Every structure is written in structure tokens, then in C-alpha cells.
């Protein structure tokens, strides 16, 4: 299916949101000077994903965090970010602890004096 030519004087952008179970991806046309807020409203993502709070959205353009009053440019990919489920540092500690408790060789490298490392005598 071919994408129709843009309306003269308009800009094209893409709005994307990755929910845990599905992805929202829509190309939209906006008037020049439109903001991320306007792009999100035009895309219909808030209707497709009612769990999103329009007032608390964290957004970005091409993986760079941007406020919602940022002006959209031709070809921008506007991304809506979900909050972190767990603190990264805490999650890593849990993974290491689980590996230690498993007793596997991989888990042993996290223990002091564990693994195949040999002490070097001087």
C-alpha cells in the first residue's frame, strides 16, 4: 500500500508507543509548528491506549527525551515512554543473587574467590 503524497506545507512524523503486549505505530501529517502534544492528539494513541495519562507522559524524539511542547520537524519519530517497572540497580542485584544461589559456574563468578580464577603468586 503506497503512502499518499503529503499535503503541501505539512510535515510528516511518526508516533510510536510500545505497550507490553502490542505496539502502536502511526504516521501522521501535521501543520508546520505543531508540537509533540499536537502529534500525540492527532495520532489517536490516547484513545487506543486509555491507560496512558496525557498529563504525565514522558516523550522523546529518536530516543532523546523531549518535553511535549517541543516543535515537531519533518520525519521525526515521536516516542512515548513507559515508566520503569523496577529500579535497574535493584533488578541487577536480584539477578546476581539468583545466579549465586543457582550454584552454576556462571553464578560462581560473582562470589569472592569463586570461579576458575587462580591467585598469582609473586
UniProtKB/TrEMBL annotation:
Basic and acidic residues bias (residue ranges): 98-109
Cited Pfam families: Ub-RnfH
InterPro entries referenced in this protein's UniProt entry, alphabetically: Mopterin_synth/thiamin_S_b, RnfH, RnfH_sf
Region (Disordered) residue spans: 89-122
Family: Belongs to the UPF0125 (RnfH) family.
NCBIfam families reported for this sequence: PRK01777.1 (NF002490)
Protein name: UPF0125 protein L602_000600001420
Amino acid at each position: 500500500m503506497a503512502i499518499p503524497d503529503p499535503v503541501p506545507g505539512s510535515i510528516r512524523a511518526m508516533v510510536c508507543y510500545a505497550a507490553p503486549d502490542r505496539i502502536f505505530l502511526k504516521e501522521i501529517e501535521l501543520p508546520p509548528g505543531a508540537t509533540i502534544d499536537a502529534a500525540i492528539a492527532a495520532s489517536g494513541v490516547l484513545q487506543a491506549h486509555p491507560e496512558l495519562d496525557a498529563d504525565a507522559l514522558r516523550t522523546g524524539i529518536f530516543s532523546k527525551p523531549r518535553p511535549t511542547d517541543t516543535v515537531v520537524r519533518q520525519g521525526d519519530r515521536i516516542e512515548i515512554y513507559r515508566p520503569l517497572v523496577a529500579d535497574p540497580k535493584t533488578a541487577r542485584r536480584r539477578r546476581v543473587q539468583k545466579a549465586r544461589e543457582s550454584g552454576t559456574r556462571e553464578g560462581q563468578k560473582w562470589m569472592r574467590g569463586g570461579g576458575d580464577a587462580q591467585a598469582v603468586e609473586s
